[in-house]
Amino acid sequence: MSSLSTLAKTSDRAFPFAAELMGVLSIAALGVLGFLLFPDDLAFLTRLIGITLLVLSLDLVTGYCGIATLGHAALFGVGAYAVGNACIGGVREPILLLGVGIVAGTIMGAISGALITRFRGLPQLVLSIAIGQLVAALANKLSSVTGGSDGLSGITPDPVLGLFRFDMYSRTAFTFSLIVLAVVFVLLLRFVRSPFGLLCRGIRDDDLRAQMIGAVVYPRLVIMYAVSGAVAGVGGALNAMTAGVVGLDSVSFERSAEVLVMLVLGGAGNLWGALFGSVVFQIFEHIVSATNPFHWMTLVGLLLIAIVLFAPRGLSHGVAVLWSKVVRRGARA
């Protein structure tokens, strides 16, 4: 667990909304830093935020419930396609489109969860891949709904609150996405510390013990998968609205595998780890691919190997351990 989340838990008793406030301030600081580092590439930062929401949604089922999945991009893509079709069909208010993404992602999450959470281990993993590939195949075949291999284009939402138009420099898209991320992150911080979230952690650690104390495991896992789908649907909605197009990459296996790598990089079972792991990976990938377009994947692979070797529980845990050592040395001095 990162030092930030540890501090948030310690102070939560005295200040009930300390963790939430810390989340808002952290995301605001990351947004300002991103704007300073990439002032001419806000479209990249906007895409980064959409993918970060997908990583957070994956953490809910993998990190907090122990559900193995490699098809999570299906929830993201279904939300994106639903918002794209709604926008083309006449629903152009961004807030309403977010609602469309939430509903579509929740439904897809509930359906996926009802199937995947019936199993454990390798069957669960294979089933998640099968569902992801089925959604990807349907997206490719149903060209009248998804645009097929050409993608779904012509997505032009109205100005946010009727005032802030989506401009070509992505200023409005970036600001809007950052606010949405902050709101979702704050809600998730409260959600995972609720009795429901704590019970899901207990199910992850020992589902048999949870059943012995009277917990009904299967429905709770399905509910968590539906919540995860809602968060992924928000990410898909932002991706569709800000990019103006939805392609097959939104539901691809590569997208599912990539977000799992980001989660492992940051540290599963910790929203802070999911947040910072996603940001670090995407920025590193963006810089390296632009600097060395021929060997950037090699450098990304070396980064992942280094993280696994020196911080096997993720960056968040590694930072926490390093911080505790610094504090102990300071106390001794």
Task: Describe the protein in words.
- The protein is mainly α and 333 residues long.
- The protein has one domain (3-252).
- The chain is 74% helix and 1% strand.
- The chain has 15 helices and 2 strands.
- The chain has helices at residues 3-11, 18-37, 42-63, 73-88, 94-116, 122-141, 143-146, 171-192, 195-205, 207-212, 217-243, 253-266, 271-291, 296-310, 315-332; strands spanning 152-153, 245-246.
- Strands 1-2 form a two-stranded antiparallel sheet.
- The longest helix is centred in the last third of the chain and has 27 residues, at 217-243.
- The radius of gyration is 20 Å and the shape is globular.
- The chain starts with a helix and ends with a helix.
- 44% of the residues are buried.
- Residues 1-12 have low confidence and may be disordered.
